[in-house]
Amino acid sequence: MKKYIVRDFMVPISEYATVAESATLYESVLALEKAQEDYAKNRYSHRAVLVMNADKRVIGKLSQLDFLCALEQKDNNYDRAFNLSHLGFSSKAIASHKEQHRKRTPPINEIYEKATMSSITKFMQPHSHEEYIEDTTSLDIAVHQLNAGPYLSLLVTKGPDTENIVGVLRLADVFSVVFNAMKKYESTITDRTDTG
Question: Contact 154/169 with Cβ under 8 angstroms?
Fold first, then answer.
C-alpha cells in the first residue's frame, strides 16, 4: 500500500458538499443531497457537508449523525440526566428515562421547523489536528490515521499547511482500495499455486 498515495483516492474539494457558515441546517441538507446526486458515479455517497468561512476555508463539518442530533430536543439537564450509567443505572432504566423525556417534547413538525432554520454552526463539528493528512502521504499511513481516530474521513491538505485543504479522504474509498488490492494479491497467489 505504500505505493498508493492519498491524492489518488481523495474526493477533490470542488466535488464535495460545502456550505457557507451562514447556512441553515436545512440548506446544508439540501447541499448534501445535491452532492450525492452529482457524485452518483461512485457507489459511496457523501455523508457530510463541509462548512466554509468567508475566506473559503473549511471550519467544520456536519455529518448525517450531527444532523439527526440536531433534531433531538435537549434542555439544560439533558446530558446530565442521560449520563447515568456511571451511577449504576441499567440501560433499560436509562432508556425508560429517555422515553419519558421524549413524551414531554413538542410535536415533531415543530422540532423540524425549529431545527431546519437553525444555523449550521450550532451543530457542526470543528476539526481536530489529527483529521488532517497531506496529499502525498502513503495509503498505509492514511489507514493507520483513520483507525487511530477513528474517523470516517480526513481533510487532505496540499503540504503541511492545514489552511490549504484540497480534498477529503473518505473511509469508504480507502476500504475499496485496500479490499481491491487484497483481491488482486490473492488472485496472484492463486495463479502461482495453480501453475506451480
Answer: yes
